[in-house]
Design a protein that fits this description.
Number of domains: 2
Distance between the termini: 35 Å
Number of helices: 12
CATH superfamily of the largest domain: Death Domain, Fas
Strand content: under 5%
Oligomer: single chain
Structural class: mainly alpha
Length: 192
């Protein structure tokens, strides 16, 4: 399945009726009035935009401006991540097996030991407030899962540049030295 189509499908299923109406209005310069009147869903609108080559997986500026105009910053963020991950998912950009095992162990220790101040750590790692808010919204009452998802998001975002040493450095910079020590101890017990 084409990842870009999957992304567009997820976008279209999240649009309210008002947002779809706004999108149709904003597309008036690109799509004829008759065609727009027939559009009943975001998927149909995206199909027309794809057919007319207004949007494509390597041509997302119009789509980004549409999402910004209807004030869907969460979707703008997902779109930007999709564009970035096009490079992240390249085979030469994947973590090696050893680093992946080290990260999994580090994530486990961090999730078990960092409490309510987890946002400070995640901000230090470079995730935006929009990303953090989206993760919190998706995992409202589960602090452990909020932190775990944030660490996975960081890992996806950084690709092969996501290193356990960065995690330890971020912990120490936020005065979470005890957790950093526990991570280092855990990594020493792993024979990788």
């Amino acid at each position: 399945m084409d990842p870009f189509l999957a992304l567009l499908h997820s976008f279209s299923s999240s649009f309210s009726d008002d947002e779809l109406s706004s999108l149709k209005f904003l597309c008036r310069g690109k799509i004829g009035k008759r065609k727009l009147e027939c559009v009943q869903s975001g998927g149909e609108l995206f199909s027309i935009l794809l057919e007319q080559q207004v949007i494509a997986s390597n041509k997302v500026s119009f789509l980004e401006s549409l999402l910004k105009n209807i004030k869907r910053e969460d979707l703008v963020l997902q779109l930007k991540q999709f564009v970035e991950e096009g490079e992240v998912n390249a085979p030469d950009d994947q973590l090696d097996v050893r680093e992946k095992r080290l990260q999994e162990a580090a994530f486990e220790v961090i999730c078990e030991n960092v409490g309510r101040d987890w946002r400070m750590l995640i901000r230090k790692l470079g995730l935006s407030e929009v990303q953090i808010d989206r993760i919190v919204e998706a995992n409202r009452y589960n602090l452990y899962e909020q932190l775990a998802q944030s660490l996975r998001e960081w890992q996806k975002w950084k690709g092969k540049d996501a290193k356990v040493t960065d995690l330890i450095q971020a912990l120490r910079s936020r005065y979470m030295n005890l957790v950093a020590d526990k991570v280092e101890q855990k990594l020493l017990t792993l024979n990788v």
